[in-house]
Design brief:
The protein has four helices and nine strands, in the order H-E-E-E-E-H-E-H-E-E-E-H-E. By secondary structure, it is α/β, with parallel strands linked by helices.
Amino acid sequence: MRWKTLFVALLFAITISLNMFVFVQAQPSAQKRGDLPLGLYGTSRGKPSKPGKPLKGIATGNVSEPPPASDRWAVIIGISDYAGDEYDLEFCDDDALDFYNALINVYGWSSSHINLLIDGQAKKTNILGAIDWMRTNEGSGDEVVFFYSGHGSGSLRNADNDPERKDECIIPWEIESGYYIWDGDLSEEFSDFESARIFFYFDVATQVV
């Protein structure tokens, strides 16, 4: 599963206030006026649609048809209210709740298959525990989603002892460096998932330290 290591590494190539939405399927370069942005499966005026033909020159093709709701699993994290008062953010919790509601109300996901962590719930142990919960439940034909909105950081000191010179991380509620979850940590966490259909979403404000 080494491709997953590359997957996570690429997803963490982020700069200050970069909003990342990572999809395996191809996205059209333009949409008709009034259409909604394409998401997990593509939407048109709020309704899921089947994947279309990939655009010429797009390296990534369409993913397979989505599995039933019983085979979809998600961890959604949004942190606006961090420990203390100095590093709080705005709207990250709202982003997570909006994403949660979209999965249920637009895409038909089951709420029992989503682990939602908001603000103080998003401690490091809870985040890693939520990933472990997905690992325990997912299977080879399932769909897995990991969504994070909050602080991030980076380091040129090889913080997680992986082959990369530059490392990036997401920052749990504790906001202290000992609690950071680095890209190498996430790569390791997801390396033994059976699913080949994993989506990562990062909406991160970050700086290199």
